[in-house]
Design goal:
57 residues, globular, mainly alpha, two-stranded antiparallel sheet
């Protein structure tokens, strides 16, 4: 899926690892701005915990 102006478009291609990591990091509070660089371990951990909570409910 490709995020475009807060809408998702389903495509036949799989998302890249970088895109998936960014999505998980955003669940953990990462803002994904151009000058922020890559997310840290704590942000990824928080994102994975949040994803777990979402999936388990």
């Amino acid at each position: 899926m490709i995020q475009n102006e807060h809408q998702y478009k389903v495509t036949q291609e799989s998302p890249s690892i970088k895109q998936v990591v960014t999505w998980i990091a955003q669940l953990g509070g990462f803002l994904a701005r151009n000058h922020n660089g890559f997310p840290g371990v704590k942000t990824l951990w928080r994102g994975l915990q949040r994803l777990h909570d979402i999936v388990s409910t």
